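We treat protein structure as text, and this decision shapes the records that our systems exchange. The tokens are whole numbers drawn from a learned vocabulary of local backbone shapes. One such record is reproduced below, unchanged from the form in which we store it:
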Amino acid sequence: MDLTKVIGHYPASDANEAWKVWLSIRGRGLSPTTLYTWRGRYRAAINYGCEVRGIPIPKILSIKKSNEHPVIYLSKQDQEKLIAAYADYARPIALTLCFQGLRSGEAVRLDWRYVDLERRSLFIHKTKTGRQRSIPIHPRVYEALRALWEQRGHPDSGTVFLNYFGKPFVDRSENAGGGNALLRPHNAACKKAGISGFTPHGWRHHWASWMVMSGADLFTLMRLGGWSSLSMVQRYAAVSADHMQDAISRLS
């Protein structure tokens, strides 16, 4: 667990200071909502440990709420403006986030072994929920992946998306450094496009919202996005039922 790796050596009396250290290392770039979740886990562990040992429970620094409401989805105009603003090396992964609904970590981990250009299918083998899934490739993502594949000499394995230095993006979901691996190129693109309040994870909300507005039902959305239950996609509201391939192909 990241808390143990980063601050597990601190005594309970220094729990608040340890939390500040965790925020500065692992918490960088995380959304307030995610930080609230981590703080809850940390407080639960500290409270239990202190109660068992009969020592005072220390106060833990709270998370300041942001006055800026996150952007749930972009207009099609802003979508295209932002995609165009990405650096060339980062645009393919941005397109994949926009049109496939992958989590950032899933996109960063994507390997050519799981990209079937012939059948136009992506196999997401390592997920947050542990549930693997196969999803059809959107036409625009197919064009971007096909171009990368030809540019790289038709590889049959290896990381699909590479950073500015031609190396794999760091999968920060398994790294104590924290944050989102795509934060730097994403923020640069947002600044260039004049878009604020839209995070890398915002692409997943953008995709889900437009899927529903394009006619996808919640079950289709859940399967394509890899959510573990229908309750997790209720926020996007239910619409008419359609086939997965039809639903994803309607995105433009």
